[in-house]
UniProtKB/TrEMBL annotation:
This protein's UniProt keywords: FAD, Flavoprotein, NAD
PANTHER family from the UniProt entry: DIHYDROLIPOYL DEHYDROGENASE, MITOCHONDRIAL, DISULFIDE OXIDOREDUCTASE
Gene3D superfamilies: 3.30.390.30, FAD/NAD(P)-binding domain
Sequence ranges assigned to domain Pyridine nucleotide-disulphide oxidoreductase dimerisation in this UniProt record: 359-464
The protein's name: NAD(P)/FAD-dependent oxidoreductase
Record-stated family: Belongs to the class-I pyridine nucleotide-disulfide oxidoreductase family.
Record-linked InterPro entries: Class-I_Pyr_Nuc-Dis_Oxidored (IPR050151), FAD/NAD-bd_sf (IPR036188), FAD/NAD-binding_dom (IPR023753), FAD/NAD-linked_Rdtase_dimer_sf (IPR016156), Pyr_nuc-diS_OxRdtase (IPR001100), Pyr_nucl-diS_OxRdtase_dimer (IPR004099)
Coiled coil (residue ranges): none
Length: 473
């Protein structure tokens, strides 16, 4: 066998070079291990090029313009659609991943371009080349957009987040299937940039995983923008006039929505197809995600010694980039400790905070920032809770942010434990208010202690003091 035919060998092989895979590879490499990362498309992944970064780059000018218009003395700001698209292009480097590839080269992580397929215990193929992982393989392949089985939908060649966040053309009319985060954020983007947007959502409201008042506030804001929001509405068929002609969405009851483009934003599907999971006996959840232990070890392996891990969206625990990176850091440290035959530190190698501590921000205007459990989720768990609601204008800083500031805050308190288990903020510029809630929830900080964390005056953070006072402290 020639040297070209010899298997490539590394201590750790990571499949998927998005932010989650990059974090896992980096932590394993910092533990002194040789690491390869496998990527068939762009290094940096979905978040960097098609999701988090471009969508927020598109949204920020809209937010900044509106924030300026809400403050007396600076009402003259206006939106430049071409400038917004140019800013987006800069953030995604025009879909060029040379910067991320350069980082891998700089730190000493080997990039294997191609499709990674598991073939057995600690072995895989990358485009036909055998690769051996002496210690571990870490799956970080994420998810892909879900396309529901609506007759004619696939044939209509709809946009997903990928096409929507990278387009250079603003359609005159855009229909959006879905009412979650991606649907709401991108509906607001395209309406602001000149599209006539219609949302079709079969659920009763928007942002169904959040507190109901959050979805209501975003719906009202979208409607003020001019978005036609149709909840409790089901699409039953889709047709398109020719390969690029107008799209017609046929609704239950006989009505139709006609648009130039159709964006499908109804959820995600785990990217497990073609990974070779069946070759090693990996267990999947009912929804098709890779089933893992609390240390991200893949369940059901033919070889019971831990060597295969799954982090990020592919395991379905929390479809959030920051939570995936958190899992990846813990997993990389765990693999490093095991390779060195050291006892893993539980505090660093078990990402236990996912159950209650997952924060999320919906970057619409108004923003929705939430952490922990909603009121409904807490009640479903049987917790003895108390809910405290306040309008955001109770914080003195809100009036400085915008004239006539509108918004709402809620905390969910576990009365038996005396700690916070959930928080939601809705309003302009509330995103950064959620991290204190995450700290309080993960740290199980008693409310009587939290009361001593005095917010600066006059800032939006003063809402924390007002919520605790409303609670009775």
């Amino acid at each position: 066998m020639s040297s070209e035919q010899q298997p490539l060998e590394f201590d750790v092989v990571v499949i998927g070079a998005g932010p989650v895979g990059e974090n896992a590879a980096d932590r394993a490499h910092k533990a002194g291990l040789t690491v390869a990362i496998v990527e068939k498309h762009l290094v940096g992944g979905e978040c960097s090029f098609y999701a988090c970064s471009p969508s927020k780059a598109l949204l920020r000018p809209i937010h900044a313009t509106r924030a300026s218009q809400r403050v007396q003395g600076s009402e003259g700001a206006h939106l430049d659609a071409q400038g917004v698209l140019d800013r987006r292009d800069a953030w995604i480097n025009k879909l060029d991943d040379s910067g991320q590839v350069g980082w891998l080269d700089h730190v000493g992580i080997t990039l294997l371009r191609g499709e990674g397929v598991l073939t057995g215990t600690r072995t895989l193929e990358v485009d036909g080349r055998e690769v051996v992982a002496r210690q571990a393989v870490i799956l970080a392949t994420g998810t892909t957009p879900a396309i529901p089985p609506i007759p004619g939908l696939r044939d209509a060649k709809p946009w997903t987040n990928r096409e929507a966040t990278t387009t250079r053309r603003i359609p005159e009319r855009l229909a959006v299937l879905g009412g979650g985060v991606v649907a709401c954020e991108l509906a607001q983007v395209f309406q602001a940039l000149g599209s006539a947007v219609t949302i079709v959502e079969q659920a009763p409201g928007l942002l169904g995983r959040n507190e109901e008042f959050a979805g209501t506030a975003v719906k009202e804001a979208l409607e003020r923008d001019g978005v036609d929001v149709r909840t409790d509405t089901k699409a039953v068929e889709v047709s398109r006039l020719g390969p690029t002609g107008e799209v017609t969405v046929h609704l239950e009851g006989g009505a139709t929505v006609v648009a130039d483009e159709l964006l499908v934003a109804v959820g995600r599907t785990p990217a497990t197809k073609g990974l070779g999971l069946e070759a090693v006996g990996a267990e999947l959840t009912d929804a098709g995600y890779v089933s893992v232990t609390d240390q991200m070890e893949v369940k059901g392996l033919d070889d019971q010694s831990p060597w295969l891990y799954a982090v990020g969206d592919v395991n379905g625990l929390a479809l959030l980039t920051h939570m995936g990176k958190y899992q990846a850091r813990a997993c990389g440290d765990l693999v490093g400790a095991r390779a060195a035959h050291r006892e893993p530190e539980p505090g660093k190698t078990t990402p236990w905070a996912g159950d209650l501590g997952s924060p999320q921000v919906v970057f619409t205007d108004p923003e929705v920032a939430a952490a922990g459990l909603t009121e409904a989720q807490a009640r479903e768990r049987g917790l003895n809770i108390r809910v405290v609601d306040l309008p955001m204008d109770k914080a003195s800083g809100s009036g400085l942010q915008a004239e006539g500031y509108q918004g709402q805050a809620r905390i969910v308190v576990d009365e038996d434990a005396g700690v916070l288990v959930g928080a939601t903020f809705v309003g302009q510029d509330v995103a950064d208010l959620i991290h204190p809630a995450t700290i309080a929830i993960v740290g199980k900080i008693p409310l009587t202690t939290l009361w001593h964390a005095v917010p600066s005056y006059p800032t939006m953070s003063e809402i924390w003091l007002r919520l605790l006072e409303e609670y009775g402290l």
